């Protein structure tokens, strides 16, 4: 898998290469390669509201997951890092609820998330958390594209930068605990 092969990302998504698109080398049109609709307001607003509901739906499962991960953490340092991430996520939940209410005039409907599935090990839990942060950044970027208010743009930017930082912290914990090296997994 190449660097740009994962879903939802294209490095030239700002539209400036469209006139220079090499149709001989790339038979698809630029619009077929890049989903322009995710950048176009208000067409992207409904999708953003659905993604906000998805983000809110995972609250219960996330709480159970963080409690499990903290309980499995081998050191006090690990527990503090994960607790800090959990506290940030609680704040993100409140921000998403506010954004949804501001955009729709109503509270976000309760949506049931996926049930908690206990990871096989602490390292598996860290791996799941790391991938979760990466996936969250991809989803939250799409929400950001639908925001018009500077306040909402700032809120989503804060959430995205926190998610990137969380990914770095999980990567640190994964590496620090020898996960993936065969000694612990």
Describe this structure in words.
- The chain has 185 residues and is an all-alpha fold.
- The longest helix is centred in the middle third of the chain and has 29 residues.
- Helix content is 60%, strand content 0%.
- It contains 6 helices and no strands.
Layout of strands and helices, then pairs:
Blueprint (H helix, E strand, L loop, with lengths): L29 H4 L11 H13 L1 H14 L3 H29 L17 H24 L4 H27 L9
Question: Outline of this structure?
Answer:
Helix content is 60%, strand content 0%. With 185 residues, it is mainly α. The chain folds into two domains: 34 residues, no CATH class; 141 residues, Up-down Bundle (Ferritin), CATH 1.20.1260.
Keywords, separated by commas or semicolons:
single chain, about 180 residues, mainly alpha, Ferritin, elongated
C-alpha Rg (nearest Å): 19 Å
Order of helices and strands: HHHHHH
Number of helices: 6
Amount of beta strand: under 5%
């Amino acid at each position: 898998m190449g660097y740009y092969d994962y879903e939802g990302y294209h490095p030239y998504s700002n539209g400036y290469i469209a006139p220079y698109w090499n149709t001989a080398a790339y038979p698809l049109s630029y619009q077929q390669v890049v989903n322009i609709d995710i950048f176009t307001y208000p067409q992207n607003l409904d999708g953003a509201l659905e993604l906000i509901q998805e983000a809110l739906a995972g609250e219960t499962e996330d709480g159970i997951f963080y409690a499990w991960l903290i309980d499995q953490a081998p050191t006090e340092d690990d527990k503090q890092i994960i607790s800090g991430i959990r506290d940030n996520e609680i704040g993100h939940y409140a921000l998403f609820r506010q954004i949804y209410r501001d955009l729709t005039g109503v509270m976000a409907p309760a949506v049931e998330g996926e049930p908690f599935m206990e990871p096989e090990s602490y390292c598996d839990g860290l791996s799941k958390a790391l991938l979760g942060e990466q996936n969250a950044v991809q989803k939250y970027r799409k929400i950001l594209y639908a925001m018009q208010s500077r306040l909402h743009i700032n809120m989503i930017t804060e959430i995205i930068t926190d998610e990137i930082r969380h990914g770095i912290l999980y990567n640190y914990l994964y590496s620090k605990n020898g996960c993936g090296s065969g000694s612990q997994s």
